[in-house]
Design a protein that fits this description.
alpha+beta; Jelly Rolls; five-stranded mixed sheet; binds 2-oxoglutaric acid; seven-stranded antiparallel sheet
Length: 203
Amino acid sequence: MSRQLALFASAQSPTRLVGDRGDVTYIPEFLDRATADALVRELNADTRWRADSRLMYGKRVLVPRETANRGEKMPQPWTPTLERVRAIIERHTGTTYDYCHLNRYRDGNDAVAWHGDRDGTRDARLVVASLSLGATRSFQLRPKKDSGLRYDPIAIDVTHGDLIVMAGDTQLYWEHRVPRDPRITETRLNVTFRQHRARETAA
Ligand SMILES: O=C(O)CCC(=O)C(=O)O
């Protein structure tokens, strides 16, 4: 049984979701409505989405969502609002991000399976800041099988403008997913701000 967190927190009161062998914080309404709306408009107008595929049991299958990367050393640049939001998140988290990975969940049939973000680098301790836009979806966390941790899965409904920050050892000991939910008919965008390398910034 998963634990559903009560959503009493506000932008001023982040909720710690994980504090053991990892550090995951949930900040509801991190972005104000106007900025979140502007970001959705800009990303929808100006992103070339990709349909990725994976080899599974010898067969190539499409991943159930569309993706894109934007930012430094990426085929698509930051958009003006994305840059502005990146700066806000950098100030909040005290670190820098050089690119972002975008997921577009067209409806509740799109999803991402359990995984940790190693991010093409050996340094799994890099910070990942995950911004939700559009439809409300369940974001779930659980300890990895070999972590030695004994916690029930955590499920939290993330919605337009909410931020989840995953830091410390999170990607080593925990995994996360957004499961299918065929009742959902609206689109959700997710923007994960990521680091090729981390630089601490002054608070
Ligand atoms: O959509 C989300 O909230 C999670 C996205 C994610 O796990 C990823 O991009 O690796």
